[in-house]
Design a protein that fits this description.
Layout: H1 6-10, H2 25-28, E1 50-51, E2 54-62, E3 73-77, E4 96-105, E5 114-119, E6 122-123, E7 125-130, E8 133-139, E9 145-148, E10 157-165, E11 192-193, E12 197-202, E13 207-215, E14 220-227, E15 235-242, E16 245-252, E17 258-261, E18 277-285, E19 288-297, E20 302-306, E21 312-316, E22 319-320, E23 323-328, H3 342-354, E24 359-362, H4 369-378, E25 381-385, H5 410-427, E26 433-437, E27 439-440, H6 448-458, E28 463-464, E29 467-468, E30 478-482, E31 497-504, E32 506-508, E33 524-526, H7 529-549, E34 551-557, H8 581-592
Parallel strand pairs: 23-24, 23-34, 24-25, 25-26, 26-28, 27-29, 30-31, 31-34, 32-33
Antiparallel strand pairs: 1-12, 2-3, 2-4, 4-10, 5-9, 5-12, 6-11, 7-8, 7-10, 13-14, 14-17, 15-16, 15-18, 18-19, 20-21, 21-22
Helix pairs in contact: 3-4, 7-8
Amino acid sequence: MLCLLVGMLLAGGAVAEKSSRIMTSWGENLDKENVWNVYPRPIMERGEWMNLNGEWNYAVTSLQSNMPEKYEGEILVPFAIESQLSGVERRLSENDALWYQRNFTVPSSWKSRRVLLHFGAVDWQADVWVNGVKVGRHTGGYTPFSFDITAALRKGENSLEVRVVDTTDKGYQPRGKQVSNPGGIWYTPVSGIWQTVWLEPVAETHIGDLRILPNIDTNTLTVEVCKSVACPDITAEVKVYDAGKLVARGSSVNNAAVEVSMPEDVKLWTPDAPFLYDLQVTISRNGKILDKVESYAAMRKFSTRRDADGIVRMQLNNEDLFQFGTLDQGWWPDGLYTAPSYEALVYDIDKTKEWGFNMIRKHVKVEPAVWYTHCDRVGMIVWQDMPSGDNCYPWQNRQYFKGAEEVRSAASEANFRKEWREIMDYLYSYPSIAVWVPFNEAWGQFKTVEITEWTKNYDPSRMVNSASGGNFFACGDVLDLHNYPAPEMYLYDATRANVLGEYGGIGYVVEGHIWEPDRNWGYIQYNSVDAVTNEYVKYGEMLLEYIKRGFTAAIYTQTTDVEVEVNGIMTYDRKVVKMHEDRIRDINRRICNSLAK
């Protein structure tokens, strides 16, 4: 969305606190005793875990204050303190510290094992204590992290305390669309715990992570089994299953990656047939299994190639495929960054698929692991943005950039690289992810060529879109244009895939389903389902003509309304679809199939 709108749109003032807001049906029917009780990491699953979501104690203090002796009330985890569903709905300033506390008891059956404390995500800096013993610190609002808390545990009840500091837009941290003064394309801040907190028992030597890489050209699957301890006498084994039948296996020693030769009749992953192989990964010593996890993988390849007309096309499995999706912000009126439930979270993906799209651009936000697993399962391609941060730099979006780029501070640059690397590490094994997007427009854009090359070298298996709609440089795999409201091709790069990274933004206010009564806006506004649908289809027909001229992917703004933005195909509360679904499904499928042979 366009930096040029910032000054105009922020003038409307901040969102009022403790207001009566719209809610989703999932939020209205939320069971506080059973909050987000789904296994949080299906790409690497063990049989035992303990969910720590639910009501915790909370307090807000000054930054200088010690751990509070008395807490102010209860907060519902994993919902941010600013959200309705947290039960608090209170802003946190850059001068505040947010404290959490709850008690837990470790099952007696875990006695002989290590105990890991997992956080899905905490925005932004988290310090953690167990029974008054500090077990660690993490910075970064978008990635999971864990601490081994075994040494701090005691028999019976244990106390867990978390301190969070979040400066939002008062610092350089990646924050996406969060600002202190929401309005227009900028939204309410999100502070504190916003994904599942959970405990897991593991062996002394256990699998810490998996890095799964398919190669359809060699028909192999490579799995790096990252262990908690690097031991040369440990054997890693990977078994591959198709509907419960063992179809391939491989093993390695000395910490080497496992390379599995896949069956000759290998099944490829596509949006229409998103086949996933089940994996069982074990580590053992002298024939004794030390740890075992369940996972999955897909055989697929994302790449680019020049077609018969000389146009660089995006390909899936070495065949041209037009990737067409929605700009997906991932915001909720009641939970802000956090969907009210798993069912709510996957609803957006399922509706996008039902409308005939084959791709989602996850816009300046990162989702819980189960979101990406659902995309893997249903065949939804994902473009993953790095959440933007620091400043919105000068923007020169209709020509290749010729000026000097802005310079971040050393601390800002180091933090960007740290968080971007952690995001790529977190999401590396999910087969649905096709494109990394380090920058959106000019939001915090710096050292574009260097960051793009670093990203590509870090993960050569995916395409890199250096700056979606941003300051353009001759680097990466993609030239990405933004244009509102209608499609337009105002630049063309014959050496890269040319995409329309944002367009549309057709606004429509549906009374009774809006965030605020008098500050709603869209790039262009209509007053009926018929009018909105007609405009959408008109843009689709225009896009089909631009595909012939060189576009190889496009993204429509956007999946849902968000706060005062009314550009969504659905309302913010997900209760109304604002277009005729059969008509948009028809044009969307024509667009997705436009390069099929």
